[in-house]
């Protein structure tokens, strides 16, 4: 059985998908763009965009009763691997050992022309 996870503390889905889905003891958080859920604004720097994407994903996890410490896998989509170090410094501030497994993939373009999108899988 699956349960849809929805929160106003993260941007709403802009297509035929859910912010998050809970199945058994796993929560799958859709890729989160760095959109401020209150203002709709997108920050200018990779650091600020990484932080907002993580905050958005975290809000969805919280709506499911979990937190970042429950994350077992993340995928980071980034439009310029030259920004990897800056993204990674912000990312590292949100996770503790044992760190989640992670993939980081450079892609040509993201929705709303943002620089980063982050998705997560958590177990709890």
Question: Would you kindly provide a written description of the structure presented here, covering whatever features stand out?
Answer:
α1 (about 45-65) packs parallel to α2. A 6-stranded mixed sheet has the order 1-2-3-6-4-5, with helices on one face. The protein has 2 helices and 6 strands. The chain has one domain (about 20-124): RutC-like (60s Ribosomal Protein L30, Chain: A, 2-Layer Sandwich), CATH 3.30.1330. α2 links the parallel β4 and β5. Helix content is about 20%, strand content about 30%. The chain has helices at about 45-65, 85-90; strands at about 1-5, 20-25, 25-30, 70-80, 100-105, 115-124. By secondary structure, it is an alpha+beta fold. It is globular.
Radius of gyration (CA) equals: 13 Å
Q: How large is the count of helical segments?
A: 2
Helix content: 10-25%
Mean pLDDT: 97
Strands side by side in the biggest sheet = 1-2-3-6-4-5
What sequence of helices (H) and strands (E) makes up the elements?
A: EEEHEHEE
Number of domains: 1
Kindly name the structural category.
Answer: alpha+beta
Flag low-confidence runs. Answer: none
The CATH architecture assignment turns out to be 2-Layer Sandwich
| CATH topological fold name | 60s Ribosomal Protein L30, Chain: A
Distance from N terminus to C terminus (CA atoms, Å) equals 16 Å
Number of strands: 6
Largest sheet: 6 strands, mixed
Instruction: Quote the beta fraction.
Output: 25-35%
Shape from CA axes? globular
Q: Give the CATH class.
A: Alpha Beta
């Amino acid at each position: 059985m699956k349960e849809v996870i929805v929160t106003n503390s993260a941007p709403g889905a802009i297509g035929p998908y859910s912010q998050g889905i809970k199945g058994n003891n796993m929560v799958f958080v859709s890729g989160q763009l760095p959109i401020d859920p209150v203002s709709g604004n997108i920050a200018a720097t990779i650091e600020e965009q990484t932080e907002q994407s993580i905050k958005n994903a975290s809000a969805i996890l919280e709506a499911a009763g979990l937190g970042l410490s429950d994350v077992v896998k993340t995928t980071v989509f980034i439009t310029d691997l030259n920004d990897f170090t800056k993204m990674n410094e912000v990312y590292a501030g949100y996770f503790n050992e044992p760190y989640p497994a992670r993939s980081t993939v450079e892609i040509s373009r993201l929705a709303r022309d943002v620089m980063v999108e982050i998705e997560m899988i958590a177990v709890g």
